[in-house]
Write a structure and sequence with these properties.
This protein is of the alpha/beta class. It contains 6 helices and 10 strands; from the N terminus they run αββαβαβαβαββαβββ. 25% of the residues lie in helices and 20% in strands. Strand 9 and strand 10 form a beta hairpin.
């Protein structure tokens, strides 16, 4: 069982390439530093998820996502719709910035991003000083954990720690929509 961490300790681990579990809006997530290729590669190996699928980035505000996404590539009406939905449980696939690495985008030209209103997620991102990878804390193909008690022991054996707390109570993981047209990728 990995240690339960205070946010400051989780942040220290994240800055050193660690992978941590934390509660999000509906399910528990796994996170790491998106700028650390080795950390992202490790997180994907833990989940048994191919890099080609890409990952979600979560932040506490828009500013930390600068350099990762290119909102200016969207028509003004679509950009306004995305911005009006945040902070909140809304994940949007937004055009990736030119410098966004493949280990984040996968085989896509966009990045799924969310500015979270979940107090624990926002606090973790704020303390970290930037966005975090946010993918469900489960092995690929397995159901996501809705509580700390539901976290898979096989997954727990491979991560560096967890930040305790409660999910935000949503019934389903956040919807993922395409920013360019508003279409739903995951409902």
């Amino acid at each position: 069982m990995p240690p339960v961490l205070a946010i400051a300790d989780a942040v220290a681990l994240l800055h050193c390439g660690g992978v941590v579990a934390y509660p999000t809006e509906a399910v528990w997530g796994l996170g790491c530093d998106p700028a650390d290729e080795a950390a992202v590669t490790r997180l994907l190996a833990i989940k048994q998820r191919p890099v080609g699928k890409g990952v979600i980035l979560v932040a506490d505000a828009l500013e930390p996502l600068q350099g990762w996404i290119d909102l200016e590539a969207l028509p003004a009406s679509r950009r306004d719709a995305v911005l009006a939905s945040w902070p909140g449980p809304n994940t949007w696939v937004v055009p990736a910035a030119a410098a966004a690495p493949r280990w984040i985008t996968g085989d896509h030209d966009g990045i799924a991003v969310r500015i979270s209103a979940h107090p624990g997620v926002a606090a973790l991102c704020r303390a970290f000083g930037g966005p975090l990878v946010s993918t469900s804390a489960n092995l690929a193909g397995e159901p996501p954990a809705r509580s700390r008690e539901q976290l898979d022991p096989r997954l727990l054996a491979t991560i560096d720690g967890l930040v305790d707390g409660a999910t935000g109570g949503l019934e389903q993981p956040t919807a993922i929509r395409i920013a360019r047209d508003g279409s739903i990728l995951r409902g």
